[in-house]
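Give me structure tokens for this 312-residue protein.
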Amino acid sequence: MVIYLILIALLGSAAGLEAEKVGIVHMHGFWQAYDEQHHLDFKNFVEEKTGVKVHLIDAFNDLAMPPAESSITPLNVQVPAILKMVKNIAAQYDKIIAVGFSQGGVIWRAMIESWDNHNVDTFISIAAPQSGQAGIPPKYLASLRNLPFVKMAQSQGQTMSEADLKLLPYDPRVQQTFAPSNYYRNPATYQYYMSTEFFPKLNNEAGDAEEKRRQKMNFERLRKLILIGGPDEETIVPWQSEMFGFITADDKIVPMKKTTFYKKNLFGLKTLEKKGAIKKCIKEGLKHNDFPNSSEVLNGCVLPAIQDVLSG
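Here you go.
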């Protein structure tokens, strides 16, 4: 009987020491598909180095047709649809590592904030405009000019000044048809920004008190937040948005700890920083699309974050 009890105790101890099952869920960015080569490189590198399975989310890819199923689809449509897929994947694991590149990083933050009792241990945000996009990158301007109502206005002889272009992303017709407009946040036109639906609510600048409390609680549930970006970024304006910093209307950079998001602890950023959960990984010499499969990023930022989860 004594030997039997000892065996039971030993078996129980072994079960308790069994490693937690960890998976990685990766969301691509705007104007991209899940199977772009740099995302496949990310997946292959991580799986080879760590043995952890990487799930590349096959949803809202590129500029697929119909537009309602592409990366251009408004984020208030994308987020709940992708979250439904993510929950099915996450159910296979004790905890998951969320990875979001560019727009995918904003989508992942929105999913985390809206997902009660989530099992996201670590969120790796890669070159994502977490504080918003203060300007319109040249490569997006063509897309905006090609929107049907804009083309119609131009065909009728209407011209668009620089001031008009700065306000265009706030137009409800753009908000409902062009995903990057959902996180457009020009500091010179803040009152127009606050009239939009998605980003002010994500940042707890708008919404009812209970929803704000819930979103903040869900974000604070993260054990680690890894912010990856760099100063040679040409798409995110300013690049400091990747670090939850931003810019003023007169082009002065505001570091994370000086932002309203942090000082008022709107959605839990200050909470995470105070408990040592935030790590910033800044890499120079990289353009926007270099980040997902850069060896410097993979070895210096991503791999240590994954190993930290596995060792915990």
